[in-house]
Amino acid sequence: MEERKTGRLDEEPYSPGKLSAPFFSWPWENLGSFKYLLYGPFAAKFIYSVLCEEAQNENCYRILPQGVDFKQIDRESGWDNFIILQALIGAMAYLSFPFLASLPLWDTRGVIWCLIIHAGLSEPLYYWTHRLMHTPQLFTRYHFFHHTSSVTQSFTAGHSTFMEDLMLCTIAGAPLVGTCLMGFGSLSMMYGYILFFDFMRCLGHCNVEVIPSALFQTFPFLRYLLYTPTYHSLHHTSMATNFCLFMPLYDALGNTTNSQSWDLHKQISSGAGVNGKRAPDFVFLAHVVDVTAALHVPFVLRSFSSQPFKTRLFLFPLWPLTFVVMLLMWAKSKTFLISFYNLGGRLHQTWAVPRFGFQYFLPFAAEGINNHIEEAILRADRLGVKVISLAALNKNEALNGGGMLFVNKHPNLRVRVVHGNTLTAAVILNEIPREVKEVFLTGATSKLGRAIALYLSRRRVRVLMLTQSSERFKSIQKEAPADCQNYLVQVTKYQAAQNCKTWIVGKWTTPREQRWAPAGTHFHQFVVPNIIAFRRDCTYGKLAAMKLPKDVQGLGSCEYTMDRGVVHACHAGGVVHLLEGWTHHEVGAIAVDRIDLVWHAALKQGLTPV
What we know:
By secondary structure, the chain is an alpha/beta fold. The chain contains 23 helices and 16 strands.
């Protein structure tokens, strides 16, 4: 398949001439978020946004393999302006022309004439208007804005200037006005045509080929009546071709059909294209945190998932629906794709086990969860994935021994299973100032707690290990070098840390327990969820995390509460494992001797602490 290069209009600076063009800006642009008050009672906005979301389904065949990054998501934040404009025009028409209130529900003649006017008037009018918008004078003033989206998706359909959408409303309104003037108007025709028009525009920009090539092989004439996502994507990558609205007939008549259109469509829709069958190099196997956080995914609310997760008021009305989905996922579901990005020419994906955080603490659910994790690992192995990293509760020691269960059960795995906790420990340890001589450690006998305690003892730091189990404490103490064992001290109460200003929290700590910390204490954390920031005279760290290298591409969603471009340390640990080409599994207990090695490898690969 011939390689196609995308333009980089998204990197061009806006010039004053472009921004000052008449009707370039929207009249309600200065209203900010208050623009939605214009939309008022039209609840169709929400329904439309759900219908137009691009499902991140790995079984669909993507046309361009790149992901949508944060810059494009921010640029396309006004994608719904066109819907607001439609609603306002519709409302004004309804109030201005009383006969619209008495339209019949259905009129077959109206539907037929609407299609005729669309094909005979709207299509050629759009075709020639679109070609006109690609002339240098109009393109640089208006239409360039639409083409700044390097990877099209459904939202891109609404990414345009006020002038262009006024013209589009005129083109879309012609069949409706014409049919009503002929006396054949109906409610079904009005709403049906508007929904059809917007759906087809979203379809053409969705970057996923959903129309089978067999349809055109069986009915060749349909090539002139129906465009495809592949067909329109060629317009965005080769802007001198494929100008039509929905009917390629007019490109054929105007001699502007891209010669690759139908061969490329056949390749992608049949799965023969290179994009359709590409396996990821790295997989981060996550899980759902809770019911509200379940909506923080790009295929539900794209703009919401492009920001760090916070509980928002609009989430609460959706809670009952999400709860029902959770029950359905519990009853029957499989691991699914959440998001993806590219790093150093390698494809990285995030998969999710269809289980919520609380379910990991139900004894009867453990076997089912492990089955899901095991199936995901075996599937990654079949696909040729090089590294799969286990997130948070998926590597719980009590659940599967930090991944050891799967490695022991399947000794011939080609995919490397990584818990990423070595880098997590490294991030926490490198946050602790070198001058610190004493720390208080909760969760002290956990996998991470053990590694942190042993490492700090080698640095001659006194570690107050909060644990009720003398047996587990002594077991860890014996692992330390003989001359470092005295630096590990067992304590059984929080009162023991009342003079220690460095707390490393690996177990949930209540506000009452936090009161024992002296003023000025800093709380380092590796507990999920984070403890409540109760003390105003103390500071609280976030979960261990690292920022991905600068050359990451197509990253457009935040990982839970992490900032843009930042991932949990266990995710970053898997990335380092892949980039370094390490061939061992990282499961079970953390190798303390490798903490510094992994840390320096992460820095060498371009990951940075936050």
